[in-house]
Amino acid sequence: MGAGRTEPGTGRGEEPGTESGPAPAAAPPEPDIRTGAPDAPTGAPDASAGGPDARGRGSDASAGGPDAPDAVSDASAEKPDPRTASAPTPTPTRRAATPLRRLAGVWRRPALRWPRRIASALVLVLLLPPLGAGIALRVNYGGDPAAGTYTRHRDALWMGHAWVDGRKKDADVRALAARLRTTGVRDLYVHAGPLEHDGTLPESAYPRARWLIGAIHRELPGVRVQAWLGDELATEGPVGLHLERAATRAAVVRSAGQVLDAGFAGAHFDLEPLHSGDADYLSLLGDLRRVTRAHGALLSVAAHQIDPLPSLHSVWGGVTGHPKWWSQAFFGQVARRVDQIAVMSYDTALPLESLYGGYVAQQTSLALEVTPETTDLLMGMPFYYEDNMDHHGSAETVAAAVHGARLGLSRTDRTRENFGVAAYVDFAAREKDWAEYERGWVR
Questions:
Q1: How far does Cα 212 stand from its chain's mean position?
Q2: What does the alpha-carbon distance between residue 244 and residue 250 come to, in Å, rounded to a whole number?
Q3: Fewest 10 Å CB contacts: which of 100, 196, 301, 357?
Q4: Taking a C-beta distance cutoff of 8 angstroms, is the pair 348, 356 a contact?
């Protein structure tokens, strides 16, 4: 992850920027979804400029003139006319055979006709699917959203740990309230973790929670403050939280009750990397739902993206060991067990804004198809800028995310009320991000 932002749930990175008021001696760190490690600044990629490959070709040229006439005594012998005299013909040179030319000659041999055909077919097999997918995403970004597909005032904002550890003050809450009053934000996911690897949560992690909740209720009546909890799962390595252990799941449930007792209106979980079909996760959600309902509170989760192609998570997981996506069926199973589900629809590695917007439109449609109407579905927006292999800041823009979400909503369920967008993350947001959100979605 780059400097200037961290990921939901698990990390220990620090928020950038100047905080108001003196910072505590040991301020809890900011979250990193995937690694739990501090964010490292990402430098701009090297750009090397190159020119065309100049290849000089020399040729022997023999210069010569017309044959000299024999000496004669006749003074009237004519000299060659420069207007009609032809230039001497240069001697052609032979190009030396290079290894590449020799290889090309071998490859053109008739005996290799079938290997050539097989190689060409393999190239087509490798290139046509991504080319076709790119065309489909670009087409998916075309057209205009339906009228009325704007905020339903069910949007959310992920917020950093500084809001509950003592770094934020009353003036910060007033500034936040001024920013949010004219938006559709109803839920604040405030980082109160991370969980320990055994599922427990020390109360020292959120010492100023009650102050924040009271201040938000005073400045923004109707806005709900949820505790954002998470940890790195031990699904792809030995270190992390083991959901397969019943004792660990029981500890996570107790941690949820703990933050609800502190006054939070809900518990928002982000556990990663979470593989599609994880039955232990579904069991945990069932236990958590009983606790949140007993407190009259919300259960919400941050969700992986859905397979853009059928079973892609299985193929990708088999090749890389990291199945990035969830199946659509598993997404629906999760959505039926929670009150809110927020898709982390960013970090897609797509290079163009039109492809990213088309991807968000597709993700929105896939999610709407399997999310119950009683569950709030939120599509994530990247309120940060990075340029790396996972996230191209020029492509993954708030404008493209909002337009894509509106297109997906228009095509699939344009009257759905329990729908919104979720902005990640408050401390990395730029004015440009807020402006694109308000212009494209709030109006």
A1: 30
A2: 11
A3: 100
A4: yes
pLDDT of residue 378: 98
**Distance separating alpha carbons of residues 294 and 296, to the nearest angstrom:** 6
Nearest to 258 by CA among 229, 286, 233, 222: 229
* Sequence-distant (≥ 6) Cβ neighbours of residue 164 within 8 angstroms: 190, 191, 192, 205, 206, 207, 208, 209, 212
> Can you give the pLDDT at residue 103?
67
The whole-angstrom separation of Cα 329 and Cα 5 is 31
Strand 224-232, strand 185-191: pairing: parallel
Mean model confidence pLDDT for the chain: 81
What tens digit of pLDDT does each residue of 91-109 get?
Answer: 555 555 677 677 667 666 7
Task: Provide the token pair at 158.
Answer: 């992920």
pLDDT tens for 209-265 read 999 999 999 999 999 999 999 999 999 999 999 999 999 999 999 999 999 999 999
Residue entry with tokens 């992920």: 158
Quickly tell me which residue has 């220990």 as its tokens: 12
Using a 10 angstrom Cβ sphere, with 0-12 exposed, 13-18 middle and 19 or more buried, the burial of residue 343 is buried
- The vertex-372 CA angle with 225 and 10, nearest 5°, equals 40
Close Cβ partners of 378 (under 8 Å, ≥ 6 residues apart): 154, 155, 156, 340, 341, 342, 343, 419, 420, 421, 422
Neighbours of 155 (CB within 10 A): 24
d(CA 386, CA 44): 9
pLDDT of residue 122: 55
Quick one: how far is CA 22 from the chain centroid? Answer: 34
More confident residue, 12 or 186: 186
Closest CA to 353 of 305, 312, 299, 392: 392
**Is 80 exceeded by the pLDDT of residue 281?**
yes
The amino acid sitting at 180 is: L
Q: How many CB atoms lie within 10 A of CB 413?
A: 17
